[in-house]
Amino acid sequence: MDLVRQFEIVGSGGEYDHYVQVHCELRYEPAPALEGLGTFDSWFFHGAGEGLGDWAARLAERSVWEVLRPLGPAEIRVHQERV
Questions:
Q1: Which pTM does this prediction carry?
Q2: Is residue 66 part of a domain?
Q3: Using an 8 Å Cβ cutoff, are 50 and 44 in contact?
Q4: Per-residue confidence of the chain (83 residues) as pLDDT tens digits?
Q5: Quick one: which H or E segment has residue 81?
Q6: HSE (CB half, 13 Å, CA atoms) of 30?
Q7: 64 belongs to a structural domain
Q8: Which domain holds residue 6?
């Protein structure tokens, strides 16, 4: 699982320069329970209609947490990249 936060970097004049994404990867040992999870992504943008609390609550309700919670990650990796 890769939790990502994106930051906009601006130049000295306030103009856009680039983005930096900070990743927190939760890596799990292979397990049969993980095979059926598939892929999912969800982005949140302030001012796009849905409030942050509603977005977070919707993510918290996903069934993936019931699968992951008892397993616990085997490794956690934090890194950043310029995009």
A1: 0.80
A2: no
A3: yes
A4: 999 999 999 999 999 999 999 999 999 999 999 988 989 999 999 989 899 999 999 999 999 999 999 999 999 999 999 99
A5: strand 75-82
A6: 0
A7: no
A8: 1-44+75-83
